[in-house]
Structure formats: structure tokens, C-alpha cells
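Predict the 3D structure for this chain.
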Amino acid sequence: MDTGYDLRFFVGRRLSAHLREEIGFVGLVAIIVGLNIGGSLFVLTTVAAGLTGSSLILVQLVSATPIILSVPAYAMLSSAMPTTCANYQYAKLFSRPLAVAAWMVLFIALPLGMLPLFAVAAAKLVAVLIPAAPVTPTAIGVMCIIYVINVLGVRLTTQVQFAGVGILTAALLTFIFGGLPSVQMSNLSLSFAGGVTGFLGASAILYTLLAGGLFGIEMGDEIRNARKVIPRALIASIVIVLVLYLLIEIVALGTVGWETMAQGTLGDVAAAFLTGFPLGLFVVGGGIMASTTTINMALTAAGRYVLAFSIDGYIPRFFSQVNERFGTPHVGLTLVFVMTVIALSFSPDLMTLGQMVNFGLLFLVTLVLLGSVWMLRKHPETYAHSSLKVKPGFMKVTALCAVAINVVFMLILAIALKWTFLLFAGAIAFGFLVFYMKQRGLLRRIL
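Done. Predicted structure below.
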């Protein structure tokens, strides 16, 4: 464990003087909700139903447990030292080499897996409206539009996110209220179709449905009154999204039963009780908005991760530039955008790379939680600087419990995904290599 980290990096220091404080409470809630509710909601919930049966609702609560347990630590850290690329910065409190390794996993998985996957998902839904629309060019078009929005400033990015989340929420509520009258209580009788293995596997799969909210803190330097706004928005958003998920799953299970639910997507479930415009709103509007709002904020975060990595000296300083007119890390955004377009052009096995995001989220969140415990022990003065007071003992217990659950989920995913884990391990190894090359001055010669 790295115990030599200088906390002055955080307290009172902005990552870049050109980043602008443009985001308020409502905007941050929209960002976190949009990050959480992605295209995976429409597919992964039905996959989980096939693994565990009608115990899906219980699975959702179990998968949400480590996220909820993580909130006290995240709230404390973000109120004490809000910053850009917060998860990466907080992970360095525990171990700088491990934080670099976790960054490397996400740097590979976001532009080469997650972003192309959601872009293709959005393009396929556009094809529902315009059958002649080719998927790959449409997906690239979606990325171009979102890239331009991100470059033009965080205010525009947040406004677009807010509008998208509004449409998405309307689509989800259409599903919920449209299906509630058709719910049959017999379909909700508790069953564990896959036994303990299926239950745990489903819990690990659904982890990412709520984990995205923990990455809504990444833009700390661009949030007004960040020390108070971030913790409040984080808590409010996670509660909102979890309630929506539970209601959607109750309606889906209650209307068609878990066997039928497991055979398709939520769009297929919606067709059992919605028709016409409401069905179109949910399948197309909800699906497209779920994908694009996630792309929007994932690109926003990824561009700022490039900025932070450049400032730390792991990639050329050129990538740390921030546009003085718009206040955005345009070079970092461009790098991520180009990587995504290349991935879309060559059509690699995106699902495999996308699954690495699951490992990356679990890995990085675990490091942040360990960092919060370490800071509590070694730097109590920083804990006292937090505007949100969480009892030290309570925060330590919740953080370590979340770490234990995260480790179990990572092991389950490693076993289930087999060779994908080797890609994850390779990315970690490369992250360590980059870190130690920098420590020995070798990167300076190359860069």
C-alpha cells in the first residue's frame, strides 16, 4: 500500500484552472441518473431473470447493497475534496500503481467497448424508425453529435443530458404505470431458478446497473458548491434510480412471469401490455435515450480521465490542454472519440471489451473505498474538512463490507467470463508497467 501520497493535491487545488463551475444540483442529478440508466437495463434484467427466476427483485436489492454501502465513503470524500476524475484521484490515496492499473482498464474498455456498444444500440433503435439507416454509419453519427456537444462546453452537455433524462424517465414511467394494472401476484411468488449460483451470478451482472452513479462525482471542479451538492445529488440519484429499477422489475415479472421475461428484452415485455405510441416511446425513445445519455456522460468522464492521466505524466502533456473558450478538455475528448470511431469501423468483439467495464468499475470502486479507510486512519484532518459528517466507525464498516462484496462479485465475473478476465489482468499488468516506467524516468525519455 502506498502511504506517501500528498493530500495537498486535493485540498484547495483544481485539476485545471480552465474548467468551469457550470453544474448545479439538478444538472448533477441528471448526470448520475443518465449514467445509471443505460441500454444495459433493457437487456441485463432479462438475462438476470433467466439466471435466478422471480427472485430478480431480491437480486436487485443484493446487487445494490455494495453501492449503498459505498455511499457514506463517497459522500465523505467528495464533500472533503471534490475534484476532476475523482475516482482515480481517490484511488491513489490507497495505491498509486493500482489506481493507474484501474485507469488503464477503463481507458481500454470505455472507448473500445462501452461507448461503441451503446452507440450501436442507439443506431439499431434508430433503424426501427428509419429502416434504411445503416447501423455502423448511424452509430458513428451518434458519436459525432455527442462529441460536438461535449466539446462545446459542460453547460450544453448538462442541458442535453437533462433533456435526455427527462424523455427517458417519461418512457420508464410509461412502462411502469402502463403495466401495473396487468400485474399478477402469482408471478411474483419467490423462486430461485438457478439456485445459489444463479442468484449470485445475477447479482454480479446487475451490479453495473447502479454502479454508474458512483462515477457521477468525476466532475468535481465543474460543480457549483461541490462540497454540498455532490453528496446530496449522489444520494438522491441512487434512491431515484433504485426505486425505478424495482418498479420496472415488479411490472415485468408480474405481467409476463420470469420464464417469458428471460426469453427477450424489456421491449418484448412492454409489448404484452403497451401498444402504439406508448410502446414506441418505451422501446425507441427510452432505449435511445438510455444509450445516448450514458454515452454522453461516459465520453465526458473519459475525456477528463485523459486530462488527469496527462497531468500525472503518464501520457504526453499535449493531452492536458483545455479549450479556453469552452472550458472543455478537447484534446482528451478527441482521443476518446477517435478510438471509439475506429472500434466502430473495425467491428471487434465489443461485448467482450464492454464486459471489462464491469471489472473496471468494481476494481476502481474497491480502491476508492480502501482509500477512504486509509485516509480516515492517516489523515483525520482531511476527514474533518468534509462538509458532510459521517461517523468514522460507521463509514469504515460500510466501506469494508462493500469491499468484501465487490471482491466476491469480481471472482464470480472472473470465473463466468473466463478469458475476458485475462484481458482484464493484462490491462492491470500494463498499468503497473506504465507506472513503474514513469517512476524510473523511462516514460520521460519516450514522451
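The mean pLDDT is 85.
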